[in-house]
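[Meeting: bench + compute handoff]

Bench side (C.D.) handed over the final construct sequence. Compute side (W.E.) agreed to return the predicted structure before the next meeting so the bench team could plan truncations. Sequence as handed over:
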Amino acid sequence: MIKDMSSIAREFFKLPESERLKMYSDDPSKTTRLSTSFNVRTEKLSNWRDFLRLRCYPLEDYVQEWPNNPPSFREQVGEYCTSVRGLVLRLLGAISESLGLEKNYIVEALGKQGQHMALNYYPPCPEPELTYGLPGHTDCNLITVLLQDDVPGLQVLRNGKWVAVNPIPNTFIVNIGDMMQVISNDKYKSVLHRAVVNCNSERISIPTFYCPSPDAVIGPAKDLISHDQPAMYRNFTYAEYFEKFWNRGLATECCLDLFKPN
């Protein structure tokens, strides 16, 4: 399934431009869209990336919007999304228990929940030292399951230095996002990461993002707040957080400081 997912992404980005552009939109409210960089409406400088963004939960609500070329796209991507959702739910149960919470605490805190994914395409870059695929940022969602191809590009910030996360065949990278940092009251930290580009090789990466529903109220779990460990964040809706994240762009790295208690 992992190999099929990488292959179908490459097939899509090898389609004629006229076929791919049927999916193009710069409107972030569209639930299926092809675009470039991060936010082309507000950016002064663009990143070296094209992406196909797909909503994928509940699957039956969105799959008919997805590309039907390549012909197997909907079937293969749908199977992958369903499998990744099962993996994420197991991870969230384990993380809840690691915090001393009930197994279903985090899942229930997400409201109706959301899941979306991006098929990221980074073309070969003639001057890679002058650009990023994506600059340093944290993910605004809860948890991200990333599938890399065999071309290096992901880096994470560790002890003040950018460290390459080289691909390992048939594995996933799991990133903690901003919402997990809030719910855990800073016990889990959102991962600052970036994507660099290669001079000679194209690269595919496929993150699947698991997130709260827009109206879900997110805040530190009450059982993790005490006199010695006060709440590090105020309560807010995920829609409120995402709006600030989207409008500020990736250059500011993280929006969590905007949600500290007054």
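W.E. noted at the follow-up: The chain has seven helices and twelve strands. C.D. will use this when planning the next construct.
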